[in-house]
Amino acid sequence: MNREEKFYETVVLIMIIGAALFLYWTAFTHGTNFSGENEMASMDMPKYVFLAIIGFSGIRLISGGLFSKRGEKEAEAEKEKGQVKVDKRVTLSAIGILVYTILWNFLGFGLSSAAFFIWESKVLKKQFQPGKTILLAAGYTVLLYIMFGGIFHVEFPEPILEMIAG
Question: Which residues, other chains included, contact 13 with Cβ-Cβ below 8 Å and sequence gap of 6+?
Fold first, then answer.
């Protein structure tokens, strides 16, 4: 990454952190509770999301200087040739995200989440192990149900389950 790109990345990260801090403060000061006694307040989930954004952006901001030299020569050579390569995994992941969101209405959240996890594992890993990946996908889906369905009381689209249950 050259100096100009690094400067813009730093500015964008600072703006993201600033916006997330403001939104966190807003969620913290406007804690509305539309839930029952044992449920979370409606502003609790956004607080966690904003804290995660602040944390990840802060880590990237701090670590940006450590890794900026790596790959700089290759990037400069590609720019001189007029070639800027986009890793095919990025394109396949973006397509996977789109298909994942579309499949929610057909397969439901559980099956589409497991399928997306398997897809991403296949796309990102060179050594794909189907058995291990299927077990991890099942665990991932159960974890999502516990976290979002059990703790945050989010209702998921499950058309196949609803069709079977009647």
Answer: 57, 60, 61, 64
Contact 78, 85 (CB under 8 A): yes
Q: Which residue is associated with the tokens 């807003």?
A: 26
Judge contact between 118 and 133, C-beta under 8 A.
yes
Alpha carbons 145 and 156: distance in angstroms, whole number: 9
Q: Which residues contact residue 61 at a Cβ distance below 8 angstroms, ignoring those fewer than 6 apart?
A: 10, 13, 14, 17
* pTM assigned to the model: 0.55
DSSP secondary structure, the chain, as one string = --HHHHHHHHHHHHHHHHHHHHHHHHHHHT----S-TTSPPTTHHHHHHHHHHHHHHHHHHHHHHHHSSTTHHHHHHHHHHT-----HHHHHHHHHHHHHHHHHHHH-HHHHHHHHHHHHHHHH-SS--HHHHHHHHHHHHHHHIIIIIIIS-PPPP-HHHHHHH-
Over the chain (166 residues), what is each successive 10-residue block's mean pLDDT?
A: 77 90 84 56 76 91 65 61 74 92 88 93 88 94 87 78 69
Going from the C-alpha of 103 to that of each of 96, 97, 113, the distances in angstroms are 10, 10, 9
In angstroms, the CA 127 to CA 158 distance is 32
